[in-house]
Amino acid sequence: MTYSILVHDPDTGEIGGAAVTGNLAVGAWVLFARVNTGLVATQGFSVSTLWGQETLRLLSEGSDPETIVDDLTTKDAGAGFRQLIVIDGLGRSAGWSGKDNYAVKDHHVEHGLAVAGNWLANDQVLKTLKDEYVSATGDMTSRLLQAISAASRDGGDSRGMMSAAIKVVSKDSPPLDLRIDHSKTPVSDLVALWKMTKSPEYQAFLNRLPTAVDASRC
């Protein structure tokens, strides 16, 4: 149903993720983030937003991603129908792919990066998603968009793609949270929406918003 990527920048502490699916409103269901805490993608045949919320709570209390994934999947009788990747504020990552999700399903985690997908068109999609991010240039948002665009070209969701989202959080900047909830071309539409945020007027708006390190900025 979905493919997603989560990444961490060790130099800035910035964390970001992007997701694409063949269903409506992927941004409402899949990505959960908190500055200085971590980022979660919860997806699958029966996606659990409870996993997203609980993961952020446990990360904020000091649990590590691997322990959290083990705990959630052990306690949830429906875990076989779900998929989860987690990355914390230190770049540690973990993942789970329930056996009852539709193939092609898989995940890959390493320090600073995690990818996952189910109901994928082929085995190449996740490799492309990871490799394109690693080789891409530009800031984190640009690289995430390049990665999901490449994965889309390699087949993406086997049913076609309907929605896309990106979320990036940092202690030094306002959150970026962009979504295309229903489109025949959600990935290219998401890229176009991101480009609109680069306008001088919108950048001026962002530059006066509070951040985690400057809560009084105005």
CATH topological fold name: Glutamine Phosphoribosylpyrophosphate, subunit 1, domain 1
Mean pLDDT: 95
Task: Pick out the low-confidence regions.
Answer: none
How many separate domains? 1
Radius of gyration: 16 Å
What is the CATH superfamily classification?
A: Aminohydrolase, N-terminal nucleophile (Ntn) domain
What's the SSE pattern?
EEHEEHHEEEEHHEEHH
* Fraction of residues in β-strands: 25-35%
CATH class: Alpha Beta
Structural class: alpha+beta
Number of strands: 10
Structure notes:
- This protein has 218 residues and is an alpha+beta fold.
- The protein has one domain: 4-Layer Sandwich (Glutamine Phosphoribosylpyrophosphate, subunit 1, domain 1), CATH 3.60.20.
- Helix content is 33%, strand content 29%.
- It has seven helices and ten strands.
- A six-stranded antiparallel beta sheet has the order 7-8-1-2-9-10, with helices on one face.
- Helix 2 packs across helix 3 (65-75), helix 4 packs antiparallel against helix 5 and helix 5 (140-153) runs antiparallel to helix 6 (186-196).
- The longest helix is centred in the C-terminal third of the chain and has 14 residues, at 140-153.
- The model has no long low-confidence stretch (mean pLDDT 95).
